[in-house]
Amino acid sequence: MVLVQIENPYDLSSWTNAPPGVTTQSHGWWLTPAYWGMKHFSYFIQPGYRRVSASDSDPNVRSSAYLSPDGLRLVVVLINTNATASSTMNFNFGTFNVGNSSVYQTAGTNTYAGTNTFLPLGSLTSPQVLPPLSLTTVVLNENLHVGPAPIPRRRRAPPASP
Length: 162
Known about the structure:
The chain has 162 residues and is mainly beta. Helices cover 6% and strands 35% of the residues. It is built from 1 helix and 11 strands, in the order E-E-E-H-E-E-E-E-E-E-E-E. The chain has one helix spanning 33-42, and strands at residues 4-7, 16-17, 28-31, 50-52, 61-67, 73-80, 87-89, 98-106, 119-122, 128-130, 134-142. It has a 6-stranded antiparallel beta sheet, with helices on one face. Strands 1-3-2 form a 3-stranded mixed beta sheet. A hairpin with a 5-residue loop joins strand 5 and strand 6. It is extended and about 85 Å long.
């Protein structure tokens, strides 16, 4: 699997992120579609995360979920394998108390226009649309309740020395 393809590696001044075969920008490096696919499984899923159960009702969607060692972050990766139809997903995270979320998506073909990048889509929506042949990563952080803060008290000044 090639993640980064390099053309003309000896002239660094001409390097651009352009796919091979593009006549106007034909030299440099190119982040291949495999790179963007791999990023969905490596950017937020860190060593120590454990895979947890995930299921969905759409036979065209493959899902996997990973929980951080401290249990405060859940990362869900969704792959829509359908080449022509979008999928609409509604989520149920069970006992995971979602505080904030972010969604990243890769869809389309990797062209110089950058349509196959790791696009941040903002917060999770319900339902979340998965375009045809797309990868979607949902990052969920749990609400953490630490309790009320204590009321600060003034310290008394130490007695003056004689």
